[in-house]
Design a protein that fits this description.
5-stranded antiparallel sheet; 52% strand
Length: 69
């Protein structure tokens, strides 16, 4: 998997707030790491660009996971 493909996956990914049921898109700000089994990106949630969250895309499976703070 390339970094470009990982970015595409994140652009298509939607995060759902479990409390409200509202769905958010992600804005990829930058790639933090491309080493190992995953790409790690710093992202902002739609509607709140100041709230930054790290998301990883697993290279082997293309799964999206939140990186614990």
């Amino acid at each position: 998997m390339t970094e470009e493909r990982a970015r595409e996956i994140l652009q298509e990914y939607r995060e759902t707030d479990e409390e409200t049921g509202q769905t958010y898109e992600l804005t990829v700000k930058r790639c933090l790491s491309a080493e190992g089994a995953q790409f790690v990106f710093l992202c902002a949630l739609e509607g709140d660009p100041d709230q930054e969250v790290e998301y990883a895309v697993v290279k082997a499976t293309e799964d999206v996971v939140v990186v614990p703070a």
